């Protein structure tokens, strides 16, 4: 490669920025189409045409059609494991996850399930998206099990962190579904936050007798 070619190439930071802009554009266009005509009825070709990019560009950024709608999935699947890994000194896994959920509810975080009525309806009306969301809950639970194994010094795959992850994952799954249900029922975010914060205290409280000291940092 010549010196001229090197000097004319855009800086790495600029290239990455442009890639992120393109990715966000495609995601935004796709979401608009999904909301307007339904996920199942919208094609990748329509998305590409609306975003003015090649169909291959869409699939390069989003290998699955579901990825276009569930674009927080990486943050979602890592969320519980990340919370456990970053728990405070003297804090158990349960306490850390309980605290993190309360914060997410107060912030109406989309990762916790706050998506708005139109998006929640789109998910509920799509068998494909509903199935993918169940897969993501399973992946999040598996990542949590690995984090709990690392935190307690046992091999990954050990039954204890897997069982604990199943219990904690079930609480989070139930709360996510509850947020979606209340959203579809027409409640605003402030009311939903108040409801699920109280319900989370009850749900996490059920696990206190057995998990209060588990995986304490």
What does this structure look like?
Helix 6 (73-85) runs parallel beside helix 9 (127-152), helix 8 (117-125) packs across helix 10 and helix 9 (127-152) packs antiparallel against helix 10. The longest helix is centred in the N-terminal third of the chain and has 26 residues, at 12-37. The chain has twelve helices and no strands. It has helices at 3-8, 12-37, 44-51, 55-61, 65-69, 73-85, 93-106, 117-125, 127-152, 159-184, 189-205, 208-211. The model is unreliable at 1-7 (pLDDT under 50). The chain has 217 residues and is mostly helical.
Poorly predicted sequence stretches spanning 5 or more consecutive residues: 1-7
The helix content is over 70%
Instruction: Give the distance, in angstroms, between the N- and C-terminal Cα atoms.
Output: 52 Å
Element-by-element helix/strand order: HHHHHHHHHHHH
Given the C-alpha coordinates, what overall shape results?
Answer: globular
Q: What oligomeric arrangement do these chains adopt? A: single chain
């Amino acid at each position: 490669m010549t010196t001229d070619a090197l000097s004319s190439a855009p800086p790495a930071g600029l290239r990455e920025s442009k890639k992120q802009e393109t990715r966000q554009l495609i995601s935004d266009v796709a979401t608009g189409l999904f909301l307007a005509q339904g996920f199942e009825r919208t094609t990748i070709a329509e998305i590409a045409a609306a975003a003015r990019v090649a169909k291959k560009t869409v699939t390069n950024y989003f290998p699955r059609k579901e990825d276009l709608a569930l674009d927080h999935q990486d943050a979602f699947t890592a969320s519980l494991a990340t919370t456990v890994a970053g728990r405070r000194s003297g804090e158990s896994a349960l306490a850390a996850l309980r605290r993190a959920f309360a914060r997410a509810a107060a912030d109406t975080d989309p990762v916790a399930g706050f998506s708005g009525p139109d998006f929640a309806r789109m998910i509920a009306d799509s068998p494909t998206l509903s199935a993918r969301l169940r897969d993501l809950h399973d992946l999040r639970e598996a990542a949590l099990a690995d984090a709990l194994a690392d935190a307690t010094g046992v091999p990954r795959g050990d039954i204890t962190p897997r069982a604990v992850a199943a219990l904690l994952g079930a609480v989070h799954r139930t709360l996510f579904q509850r947020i979606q249900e209340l959203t579809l029922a027409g409640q605003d975010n402030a009311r939903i936050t108040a409801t699920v914060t109280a319900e989370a205290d009850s749900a996490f409280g059920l696990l206190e007798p057995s998990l209060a000291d588990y995986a304490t940092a």
